[in-house]
Amino acid sequence: MFNKPSRFVDRVFIHCSASDHANHDNVATMRRWHLERGWRDVGYHLFIRKSGMLEDGRSLEETPAAQAGNNMGTIAICLHGLKEDKFTEAQFDRLRQLCLEINNAYGGALTFHGHREVAAKACPVFDYKSVLKLDRFGRLSLNGADLQDLAEDAGDDPETLPVLRRGDRGPAVARMQKLLVVKDDGIFGPRTDAAVRDFQSSKGLTRDGVVGPITWAALLANDRIEHDGS
Ligand SMILES: [Zn+2]
């Protein structure tokens, strides 16, 4: 859940980490790199791993160190990755969800940009304008319904669907909730957790409340059976 900082913010900048190494796929590595440069903390506020997991970096209450000359009044988000085709849909989904939350928190009174708009750098390397459906001013035209559609288009490969557990949020959670036939609000709370555990028990799976490849496969198979039978 995004909480608005008390400092003034009117722009969000998107970055990429310029690495595809799995060992660098965490905010701790970014922090180490930035401390080695003599900074007092990691430059970014938020970091999105290839799995779609969101990590907190610098406190949102502090100005980032991410876009030289354009740090005041901004939030800096970094996605792990170097090559355009190595970013994952899970990352883009998380980015969409996060930017939608930020946009809602500000009532739409802020704009979204790539680092490359203010620097002679290819950062980020992916087409963030289409990922976020930005208009020419950088306003987000993505809405909740788009997220729902995106989740449904995400594909059916249990190995590539994100591992979900209590506390997670977003379109993948909403999709899983739909398969479970519980309220699809995209929030993995106690009721969803109980429904997942009951489903796992009913299928003879480990009742751990974690939706990994095996539980996803069972949910998708269950859905197919029900649809085919009707
Ligand atoms: Zn950047």
Automatic annotation (TrEMBL):
Name the UniProt record assigns to this protein: N-acetylmuramoyl-L-alanine amidase
UniProt-listed SUPFAM superfamilies: N-acetylmuramoyl-L-alanine amidase-like, PGBD-like
Superkingdom, taxonomy of origin: Bacteria
Pfam families noted in UniProt: Amidase_2, PG_binding_1
GO molecular function terms noted in the UniProt entry: N-acetylmuramoyl-L-alanine amidase activity
Domain Peptidoglycan binding-like: 183-219
Record domain N-acetylmuramoyl-L-alanine amidase: where: 8-124
InterPro entries hit by this protein: Amidase/PGRP_sf, Amidase_domain, Peptidoglycan-bd-like, PGBD-like_sf, PGBDSf
GO biological process: peptidoglycan catabolic process
